[in-house]
Amino acid sequence: MEMPPDQPAASADEWRVALEKVVPACVVLKVTQTRAFDTEPASSSYATGFIVDKSRGIICTNRHVVTPGPVVAEAIFLNREELPVFPLYYDPVHDFGFLRFEPSKLQFMQVAEVPLAPEAAAVGLEIRVVGNDSGEKVSILAGTLARLDRDAPHYGRKGYNDFNTFYLQAASGTKGGSSGSPVIDSQGRAIGLNAGGKNKAQSAYYLPLERVVRALHLLQQRWPLGGPLDAGWSAACVPRGDLQSTFVFKGFDEVRRLGLRQETEAVVRLAKARSHGAPGVAGAQLHTVGLLVVEAAVPGSPADGVLEPGDVLVRVQGQVVSHFLALEELLDAAVGQTVELQLERGGTPLVVSLPVTDLHSVTPSSMLELAGGSVHALSYQQARNNRAAVGQVYVAEPGYVLGRASVPKCALITALDGVPTPDLRAFALVLRSLAHGARVPLEYITFGERHRRKSAILQVDRQWYGVPLHWTRDDAAGVWHPSEDFPPLPPGVTEPAAISKLLPAPHANGRSGAKAGAAAANGKAPPAAAAAADAAGGAADGAAGGAAGSAAGGAAGGGAAALPPGSGELHPIVAAARARLAAAKAARGDAAPAPAAPAAPAAPAAAPASAAAPPGADGFTEAVEERLKNCLVLVDVDIPLVALSDGVHARSFAGNGLVVHHGQHLGLVLVDRNTITIGTCDVNLSFGAHPAEIPGSVRFLHPLHNFALVAYSPAALPPEARSRVCAAQLLTAPPLARGERCRLVGLTKSLRIMQRSCTVTNATVALTIPSAEVPRFRAVHEEVVKLDQDFGATFSGVLTDDVGRVRALWGSYAEQVDREEREWCAGLPAHVFAPWVERLVAQESPGITAPPLPVRVLDAELEAVLLSKAAQLGLPSEWVSLLDELDPERRQVLRVRSTVASSAAAAVLRSGDMILAMQGQPRGAAAAAAAAAAAAAAAGAAGQAAAGRAAAPAAEAAAAEAAAAAGDAAAAGPCVAVTLFRAGVVRDVLVGLGQEDSLGTDRLVHWCGAQLQAPHRGVRELGFQPEGPAGVFISRWHHGSPAHRYGLFALHWVLEVNGHPTPDLDTLLAAVAHLRDGDFARVKVCHLETTQHKVLTLKLDTKYWPSWELRRDPGTGSWTRRLIGGSGAAAAAGANAGRAGGGAGAAAAGGAAAGGAAAGGAATGDGSGACTSPAAGGGAAEAMQH
Fold first, then answer.
1. Structure letter (DSSP) for residue 609
2. Residue 937 per-residue DSSP state
3. What does the pLDDT read at residue 1178?
């Protein structure tokens, strides 16, 4: 394309001079979205901006950089000075916004600015794009404007999209980080704003600047030069009007096919038209070549049902409108008024009047933060993307409570606890009326299945996250303010029961306004109208249901009033059905079951070997199956995002459990540790005996073996369930043997029992589970049972004999193979867990919470080595022969694979040591070695020490000295005498036993969005710890937090903060206690995998990310949340701090994903956070450059 005669090509010197003016005015923006909001997830990324008013400190950039949600941002200037910037304005529709900084705080450079010249845009104009492209601090890309009328790019249905405007286009090839870059001409003027581009092409899209110039002028009018910004400033000070309709530009050839009359086309062609660029410049049209056509109207809006797709817009307020600029100027000037539109529909002229919507009123400025999730009014952006009415309750991020109810992101909540929730205020009021732990029905719809109403059970949580917070945007200050008082209540109303009296009555038959929400989402009717229709429909349905019930049960006439719950009267259908059941039982001769009282407290029966009786002649009878069904439980586990500790690899788990004790005050359920992974979780128990669900509490987690115990309160069960549930009988001896027949029994997800006869193929499989990429619990020192057939790799249950006695727990195991999670099941013999069941039952506390039991363990991992290999390694023949004779089936010796870092065992044992005997007895199996260690611990410190001195008098002093040198506290506790083979010598040593908490980690501290804890056993098992005390370990980080922003990722030890050593969590908190919002901290860390030390700096954000902790009560085992420091707004935020926005960063090196499947069934994998700057949005064809 030839250059216009009045615009000769600029010389290199001209471009050099222009760039010298522009480059100092460009800044790199480091933006962190602290919460998910509208179209944007919680994230941290880089972008570009340029100064357009140096006196006031105004920076222009993209809307998708400023974002409508809460953000924290800094601007890095050319000389690498960094200043905080605050959101000032973002356009409700178009992709531009303003940030502000304080010019007086820029100390070492002169501030420059870039003039805006939208009229200079022209086809063929040579341009430069100056900004932060692909992470480069300064990048200059060249191009030539090819189009001034490109359709607004589409980035995908779920993200932000611009519309009702043209874009400029050139082949500059801008990439990530260049969002907000100025597009300049050779005079150093900005003629466009870089916004997006094609993923697989060089095309780049620039926003024209006409509306940017208008907004800037209005802003400057409210901000006197040299004075402060008007305290009453808000985004609404820039009037923005819209018809809640999308228009597209069509050429005359197409609008003719839509029915445009010839005489109308003639009039339009003669009329002067607005266009981007200056009149007379190449590419700027003086006369139009097409018209605007209605593409869609938002459901429930004034234009819904008035404007139809295909309508051709001719005039607005009597003026011919053929360009978006003219349309926007007219609508912006008529906000809150009515405008007259002249249209043509299929060749028929139409005149309609429509009110002009204030775009700021349909853009949410507040949100409700609920247990790590974000809920707010449905925005105009998402309503347009998904054809739904604005203002409905929209889930930007489910968080823990909504996620636990399986409510997905982008869902619309239509009712809660039977009460319609047409807007955020109604939803928050119902939620405020519910107490902690309440379980209520919730109804919602999704855009993908908008014609189907969905329901779920929402369980209210106040333990992990505190009360919901209502955040409100303050445009003048550029921040968001939290409040717990939403919606405001009348004086004296505080209790949930009193709040519930303020709610509207639910619909008949428990039906809510879900139909109204569904209709609104489908665009069939406004929410209020649909709710009224649903009320009438509910009454009609209730009458019909009553008639049907009368016909089925022989009760009174149709339409009889429903029986209220708790009235003591049976529904006619229930009464008739029970009569038929009783008659059927009488015909079979069955005795009617009488209600039974709850069983007296008793320990589970662990049958001795002599009690083993042969199965009945009829084998596995229905009675045995029914009894086992009454012992089985489905266990569902959900872990809050702020409590994902100890390297746990998923957020939800499910599996089979076994009732091993059912007393008056306490019930215990046995389950594998691939279902109950950590103690910081919520457990739900569904009983096979009766359709009942109650919460459980983690009571015991074995640190080495794959079993856990969950406590529940029998009183929480309905009387019928309480009478049916019974404890299983455990058969601890004789152990299962190869070739023996047994039964595999378990519950399906639908609570149906499944069982089959199996044969033991191997009863002594030694487990060797490798360490995962993210260290976590793994079973060690276990020998498990394998079967010839089962129900699949994830079906857990129990192994029983034919009379129903439990021989083993058929538990789920998980391991990581090539970074992928794999699951399988195996049998854990009953003698491993039965003693711990007895100890828990014998505890004095009658409740479901009690102090955790200490567990003494050998802090070394042992692996099996074939005797033939051991002989080649130098093991004396006398030991080879002895071990072979004692255990002809295994024919192995144990070898030390690794030791726990900083343990007593690490001071005595070395990798490669062969363990020949423990406590004077030869040991060739890991399970036997673990049993010997347990026996030594049970023997008591005094008796064991005497036995150890008799076995190894010379070794005791050396072991004690070595343990003391290691500073291990366990040296004063029980020890085990070990005979080992090392370097050709058989020697005797004393190894101190370690002590583990049977509930795992007892404290989690959240600081700057990083989750800190003491190094858990999975980390210490790797055998490495930084020199000196290293008691602070990062196990998680959260999206949108300072930890995310500055790279304080998981799998690091925190060694120092601001030069102060941090040997434990208390010391770290003391070191940061004096730091305030905006202060910088210097953090020295050590990476787990590389052991490399490095120093990071990060800026505190105590408003959105205050410090707080979760701590387990040592007496009861229950968890409480506590804010650390802060007051006022910070305290309010702290009550609900620690959300992960779009999901917590996986605890992997540099934030790599740790996800994977979960135990015994499906699990929700945890989203991972990336270390690099993530791209914002992006469809298959086009992507924003944020």
1. G
2. H
3. 38
